[in-house]
Amino acid sequence: MPPVERVGKYGGAWRMGLLGGSDTALMTRTIGYDYLVRWDPAWNKVVPNVAASFEASPDAKTFTFTLREGLKWSDGQPYTADDILFWYEDIELHKELTPTRGQNPVTVEKVDQHTVRMTFAQPDGLFLQVQATPAGDRWTRYPAHYLKQFHQKHNTTTLDQLVKEAGARDWVELFRLKGMGIPGTPYNALWQNKDLPTLSAWRIVEPYGGNAQRVVAERNPYYWKVDPQGRQLPYLDRVTYEVFQDREALVLKAANGEIDMQERHIATNQNKAVFADNQQKGNYRFFETVPTLMNATVIQLNLTHKDPAKRQIFQSQDFRIGLSHAINRREIIDVVYVGQGEPYQVGPRPEAASSTTRRWPSSTPRSTSNGPTSTSTRPSPRRTARASGSARTASASRSPWRSRPAPAAPSGST
After folding, report:
1. Is residue 129 one of the residues assigned to a domain?
2. Is residue 342 part of a domain?
3. How many CA atoms lie within 13 A of 304 on its CB side?
4. Structural domain that includes position 336
5. Residue 412: helix, strand or coil by DSSP?
6. Is residue 269 in a domain?
7. CA-CA-CA-CA dihedral for 154, 157, 159, 165, to nearest 10
8. Which of 64, 144, 222, 254 is the most exposed place for a label (fewest CB within 10 A)?
9. Is residue 283 located within the same domain as residue 309?
């Protein structure tokens, strides 16, 4: 695996902060991103990860994945196509564990120990891209050798006793506690069951949830990636997350140099001055990242509004162009976003590999020609902090946008 800057040294810890009892997204983004495929660092294409290779049929109905040979879970047991088949046959197709399967459910076939074929009745042109997001964790989070003991199909002798010992209502809740999540709650076994084997670089040893004041993950001794010199990754011994109930306390911790690298919760324009003033004291430096959001704000008009008068107005291209001209993007940027951003429209960011979008001057804002949207500002590159000469870092930002795509607004919204 090529390094971003240079090969590293073994040892040390990465300190971060969680906010409240349901902040699992930070762990997913920092120590949980190991799926069959992933985005390359430039976010230009989907590349193999746990899978050594993949192939998509021309009609986007069939996807074949070849797994890397020799992969092991963090407890030393092999990871093979049987783990994926276990998810499909015993979780996905089990009515009590998966009540609904969506409109275009997948069929999974084991070709051999290291090859699986996934087939859809209808084309799924974005399947690979979706598998490079947290939605792709289903193929890599269910170790069959561990979870079968909690499944009715595979344990007909001691399951009742295990249910009783765990204080669960039934075997379904027990299985969810050990390997899945509890509907309607923030519970996620990935971060709250320290006995659940993982394929990720670090394994949980002090779990999240309850009254936990910190979460600790230690190096996975069976992790499969190596650096260009053939040395096993990860370099860091552990990753620790202190659990904060107050955002300001987390900001203060970072400003004091007690957070090693973090963007979530603290990288806002409002905190920019705090981090700039404490940079020397906290011994950290800043670096920029590029948000994947193409816009901070989008106004979406309902072109099929129930009110005939509004529907006629909203469907008028001249009205939408006029609305776009009426929006003072520069003033919004200066007042709301502390001058961080630039006037923009709906379209890919100019950094995107597929972008043909031109940057339009703020004096001549334009409306999209056919769509229902008018837009406000494009986020600036995010400025985040990294330690200078030490392992201590904090984080600051030139813009308040998240570094991942936001869900699309529903068509009926405005």
Report:
1. no
2. yes
3. 3
4. 298-378
5. coil
6. yes
7. -150
8. 64
9. no
